[in-house]
Design a protein that fits this description.
alpha/beta; Rossmann fold; elongated; 6-stranded mixed β-sheet; 5-stranded antiparallel β-sheet; about 375 residues; 10 helices
């Protein structure tokens, strides 16, 4: 223990003296400032959160509007049924909640009409109409369909707010080239394994390549599915030109883009008798399809270019189809791929479609092959034009 006598009196006094009162005053000021600033910061944070929430709601509502307009336009183009189109729009809207809440789309929010543009470089202009319908407009007002509430209510009398968004989808003109596999394996039925030494099980006795295609051949299934596809296009609202390229070891451009679909059927039937053997050159088939789209006399600069590539096997000849797909993408060509039979290289064809923002389908029999073509009819480019 320290002896106080060892220290001078003034030092003893200093040690015993309490803290400076100014320190206590500063603490009081800081506490007062904090008491004022914390509510202000909370209010500012609340406004920032609400603004972010409102922006998120606008984005979600635009997504819902876009999805609804595309679904309605696609459904109407395929069915010509307004009620079916309205139901499709409502279903699409319900699948896209706005900030976690499902908002109901009303019939009066779904408007049918026509979108046109003066030239390929100009914007589409939507006009409400019951004649020559090729567009559907969604006028989505959240307040009419259900309220959206702000998460923070500081300084807000009414937490409900309305966000309005619009979207217009239009069935675009499309140029389509079918790229069809006519390799030797297409002579076999879809449920059997193709063989270079064993004839198709449905073939007549002593059948050889160069004879007419056997019954129940994949080739015949492809022709039937193509004919159903062309019939659906003819009945649809879009102006679609169709061309044909076929391939085995080498590819050919069989029909230039045209609106006379009977030429496609005639060209396919030409290969049925005689039906020859050959390898599978998918890459060359894609390149012939691109050439057809680019250089056909009737090609249209404003139309969306599409290839539908059908194969029942594995690429084993010529240029790589993946490289061909990248070249197609560089030319803004969309590729739908269809693999037919379990022997087909699904992985490669999935990649080809993905590279070009297309879709892939796998068919296991004649029925699912026709279903794939019919789905493509309904999916042919529907453009968001507003």
């Amino acid at each position: 223990m320290l002896d106080q006598n060892l220290f001078p009196m003034n030092l003893q006094t200093l040690i015993a003296k309490p803290r400076d009162s100014r320190h206590t005053e500063r603490q009081g000021v800081v506490i007062m400032l904090m008491a004022i600033l914390i509510p202000v910061l909370l209010i500012i944070s609340g406004f920032a959160i609400n603004l972010s929430y409102m922006e998120l709601a606008r984005t979600d509502l635009q997504i819902a509007s876009d999805a609804a307009s595309r679904a309605a336009c696609r459904t109407y183009g395929y069915t010509k049924d307004k009620v079916a189109a309205q139901n499709a729009a409502k279903t699409a809207a319900n699948r896209n909640p706005v900030v976690g809440k499902i908002l109901s789309l009303r019939d009066q929010d779904i408007i049918f009409g026509t979108s046109k543009r003066a030239s390929s470089g100009s914007k589409f202009v939507f006009t409400e109409s019951n004649i020559e319908i090729n567009s559907v407009k969604i006028d989505f007002l959240s307040a009419a369909s259900g309220s959206v509430q702000l998460p923070i209510r500081i300084g807000v009398n009414n937490p409900d707010f309305a966000v309005a968004q619009q979207a217009v989808s239009t069935q675009s003109d499309v140029d389509v080239v079918l790229v069809v596999d006519r390799s030797g394996s297409m002579a076999f039925a879809v449920d059997e394994i193709a063989s270079p030494t064993i004839p198709p099980k449905n073939a007549p006795v002593d059948w050889v390549f160069g004879d007419p295609v056997p019954p129940k051949a994949r080739w015949t299934d492809a022709i039937n599915a193509t004919n159903a596809f062309l019939a659906s296009l003819a009945a649809g609202p879009q102006d679609v030109l169709v061309g044909l390229a076929t391939y085995s070891e080498f590819s050919t451009i069989d029909v230039n883009l045209d609106d006379n679909y009977s030429n496609i059927t005639s060209a396919l039937n030409f290969y049925s008798n005689p039906f020859n053997s050959g390898g599978t050159n998918i890459g060359d088939g894609i390149y012939s399809g691109i050439t057809n789209l680019k250089h056909s006399p009737k090609r249209r600069s404003q139309a969306v270019p599409v290839l539908i590539v059908l194969t029942d096997g594995i690429h084993n000849w010529g240029p790589d189809p993946i490289s061909a797909a990248h070249d197609a993408a560089d030319s803004d060509v969309i590729i739908y791929t269809i693999t037919f039979s379990q022997e087909a290289d699904q992985a490669a064809m999935i990649d080809v479609a993905k590279i070009t923002n297309g879709k892939h389908y796998h068919a296991t029999d004649a029925t699912t092959l026709q279903d794939a073509f019919q789905d493509i009819v309904g999916d042919l480019p529907v453009l968001l034009t507003q």
